[in-house]
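TOPIC: backbone geometry
CONTENTS: sequence, structure tokens:
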Amino acid sequence: MNIIGLDIGGTNIKTGLTRNGRILSLRSLPTRAFLSKDSAVKQVMSAVAPWADRAQAIGIGSAGIIDSRSGIVKYSPNLGWNNLPLARILSAKFHKSVRILNDVNAVLL
């Protein structure tokens, strides 16, 4: 199964396409959080788009307080996000299963 992985930080959004845990491709984009929270969300979508047709799911690690059950970024000071339903936004856009958790917890997994 192919999965898109994202590490969303205040400076960069790092993405990778994986198959069965093996990295197939990597990419990095500037986050642009300094412009607006909408700009950062658009950058996340831009990071996912090139691989969306090849992946079955999306996994996200993001800085801040994350409600993993509901897929909501409760608070991310680096991104200026408050109560952003990021998993739902991406799922609706790309028609994929999306999971999100705090970036530190993602690294530990």
About this structure: The chain has a mean pLDDT of 92. The first helix runs from residue 37 to 48. The first strand starts at residue 2 and ends at 8. The chain has three helices and eight strands.
